[in-house]
Amino acid sequence: PNQLQKNSSKALAAVIGTPLITGPAAITAIIISTSDYGILQTSTAIAIVLAFTLVLLYALSTRSKMKGETAIQVLSTILGLVTIAWGIDFIRTGLLLA
């Protein structure tokens, strides 16, 4: 692939990945946690999670340079299928309980 395709795939990954880290669920959890536990404990938890996320993303970025692009694509597809299966299970459970 040429340089433009590589840059496009990196930009797409950033656009998809960012809402997963700081999406509506994370914001809701922060609001609820702040009301239940206070600002200090919530801020501490946020700092720990952000530090863990930084370490994890850094480790994965250096590891992706060592692994082949095909292996990363296969793993991404498998994890996507697992996520879809969870979503279907959540919908099914919600419909059965309704």
Automatic annotation (TrEMBL):
Keywords in alphabetical order: Cell membrane, Membrane, Transmembrane, Transmembrane helix
Subcellular location: Cell membrane
Transmembrane segments: 12-32, 38-60, 72-91
RNA-binding listed as a keyword: no
Organism field: Candidatus Iainarchaeum sp
Cross-referenced InterPro entries: Multi_antbiot-R_MarC
Superkingdom per UniProt: Archaea
Keyword Zinc-finger: no
Topological category with respect to the lipid bilayer: Multi-pass membrane protein
Name listed for the protein in its UniProt record: UPF0056 membrane protein
A cellular component term, taken from the record's GO annotations: plasma membrane
Record family assignment: Belongs to the UPF0056 (MarC) family.
